[in-house]
Amino acid sequence: MAAARMNMNCSIQSSLSCLLKPSSFFNFKPTHFENRLYYPQSQFVSSKRSLLCTCSSNSSNSNFQTGEKAEPFVITTPLYYVNAPPHMGSAYTTIAADAIARFQRLLGKQVIFITGTDEHGEKIATAAYSRGSVPSEHCDVISQAYRMLWKDLDIAYDKFIRTTDPKHEAIVKEFYSRVLANGDIYRDDYEGLYCVNCEEYKDEKDLLENNCCPTHLKPCVLRKEDNYFFALSKYQNSLEETLAQNPDFVQPPYRLNEVQSWIKSRLRDFSISRAAVDWGIPVPNDDKQTIYVWFDALLGYISALLEDKDQPNLQSAVSSGWPASLHLIGKDILRFHAVYWPAMLMSAGLSLPKKVFGHGFLTKDGMKMGKSLGNTIEPNELVHKFGPDAVRYFFLREVEFGDDGDYSEDRFINIVNAHLANTIGNLLNRTLGLLKKNCQSTLVADSTVAAEGKDFKDIVEKLVEKARIHYEDLSLSSACEAVLEIGNAGNLYIDKNEPWALFKQGGAPSEAAAKVVQPSILSFVLYTKYFA
Fold first, then answer.
1. N or C terminus of the chain: which is more exposed, having fewer CB within 10 Å?
2. 527, 487 in Cβ contact below 8 A?
3. How many helices, marked H, and strands, marked E, lie in the chain?
4. CA distances from 429 to 71, 236, 421, 486 (A)
5. How crowded is residue 312: how many other Cβ atoms within 10 Å of its Cβ?
6. What's the mean pLDDT when you consider all of the chain?
7. Average pLDDT, stretch 300-323?
C-alpha cells in the first residue's frame, strides 16, 4: 500500500476533504479565547500553516454507500418569509436539513436539498414600505441575507428558489388552472378574523383573549372579502385515509395526533386569493386578485426542481425529482404542510411528499424569545462569534429533534469545549502531531488495514451503525452522541497503546507505533464524515 503524505501547508479543510472524500466535511475554526471557547493553540493549525493530505485510496465508497444508483432524496426547508432578516429558528431548520442531506449523500444517494425564500404577500409589502423601500428591492436584500447566512453556516444546498422567479410564477399559474379544471376552486364572499402575520383567517375558538393570534400574540382583524376558495372539505375522507394508511407521513407521532385532530374537527374550505393585496401572483383570468401566499409558496418545492434549461411547466418540474422525500418545517406551519398541501396535490393529481417532520421552537435561557424582550438569538452574531462548527454542533446535539430546545451561552460554551475541543480536537492534535514528529507526516500503511484484528475496529463499526440508525430515524441528537463516542473510542485507544513510548524505542517498536496511531486517525475521519 502506497504511503500517504501530509503536507502541512494548506488548509485543514483540504486535509479532511482528501481523507474523507465526501461532498462536505467538518470545518474547524481557530480559537476565539475572548468568547471562553477553550481550543488549545496546538490543536489547530493557523491559516498560514495548515494541513493538506495527498493520500490515495483504492475505494471511494463510504461504509454506507451501496454502489447502486438510488432514487433522488429530496429534502426541503420551508421557503423563508422575507418580511425580516433570517433568525435562529430559520437557521436551526436549515442546519438540521443540511446534516440530513449530507448523511444521505454518504449513503450514495442523489440528494436534492431545496431551500429558498417566500417573497409575496401583504406583510412583505408592508415591511418594505416601512423601510422606505419597494417590495422587489426589499425581497432582493433579505433573500441575499439568507444566502449569505447559509454560506457562513456551511449549508450545502442544491436549489435555492425565490417565489418572485418568473419560472415559479408559471408553475403556480399552471397548478392553479389544473385545480380549477378539477372543480375545486370557486368564488364566494368571506368574512372572518384575519392574522396579518400568519397570512391566515383564524377560527375564533383558536384565538386568545381579545382575539389575539396564539402565535404572534397580536389581535386579528375582521375582514370581509370576495375571494376564490379551495374546496378543502372535499378531501376530508382522502386525508383521513392517507394518515391512517401511512402514519409515518407526519412525524414526530405527537404532530400526527395534532393533524388528525384538526381533520376530525371537520375541514373548511379556505380562501386562496386576496383582493386587497397587490404584491403577489395575479389570479389567472382575474388580475384584480392575487394568489394567496401559501397557495403560492408551497409550489416552490416543485418549481425549485426545474433546471435552467427546462420549460417552466409542471411536467418538467415533477419529472426532475418529485415527490419530496422529506419536508422539514417548524411546528407553527404544520397545518399548511400536512393538511392544505396534500389536499392541493390530490386535486392537481400529483404525488404527496413522503414525510412531513415538524420540529419545535427554540427558547433562550428557558424563556420564549422576542425582540420586545431583547433576548433573541441573532444567527449571524453567533456564527461570527463562535464559528459555524460550534453553532451547528450545539443545536444538533443539544436539541432533541422534534421537541422545543433551549439555548444558553454558558451551556453552549461548555458543550463545545467538552465535545469539540477536548474530545475531537485532542484526538486530531495527538494523532497528527505524533505522525508529524515521528513519521514525517507519512502514513506507513492503509489505516483500514492497520485496524484489522483490533477490538477498536469492531467498536468503531458498531458506533457507525448506531449513528446510521439514528440518522435514518431523524434522531439527530442521538446520532451526534453516537458519533462523539467514536472520538472517545479513538482517544481511549491511543491512551491504551501509548504509541509515544514505542516511538522513543525506535526500530520495530517505532513501526508498530505508527500502525497504532493510524486506526485512531480512522476514528477521527469517521467522526468528521458522519457528524456534519
1. N
2. yes
3. 21, 19
4. 40, 59, 10, 16
5. 17
6. 82
7. 96
User: Crossing angle, helix 341-348 and helix 166-181, to 10 degrees?
Assistant: 70
Alpha-carbon torsion (343, 349, 350, 353), positive or negative = positive
Once rounded to an integer, what is the mean pLDDT over residues 23-29? 32
Q: Give Cβ neighbours of residue 511 (< 8 Å, ≥ 6 apart).
A: 444
186, 494, 531 from 387: Cα distances, Å: 52, 28, 16
d(CA 433, CA 422) in angstroms, rounded, equals 15
Among the ranges given (365-379, 440-454, 492-506), the one the predictor scored with the smallest mean pLDDT: 440-454
Residues 6+ apart with CB under 8 A from 190: 201, 224, 225, 227, 229, 271
Quote the cell numbers at residue 212.
389575539
Query: What is the rounded radius of gyration, in angstroms, for the C-alpha atoms of the chain?
Result: 26
Cell digits of residue 357: 417532520
CB contact set of 192 (below 8 Å; sequence gap of 6+): 201, 202, 222, 223
Which residue in 114, 92, 119, 83 sits closest to 101, CA to CA? Answer: 114
Q: Is the torsion defined by CA of 304, 309, 310, 312 positive or negative?
A: positive
Closest CA to 37 of 26, 49, 48, 28: 28
Angle, CA of 146, 149 and 154, to the nearest 5°: 125
State the Cα–Cα distance between residues 393 and 412, nearest whole angstrom. Answer: 10
Amino acid at 476: L
Whether the pLDDT of residue 358 is over 90: the answer is: yes
Query: Does 498 score more than 90 pLDDT?
Result: no
For residue 358, the one-letter residue type is G
**In this structure, what C-alpha cell is assigned to residue 20?**
474523507
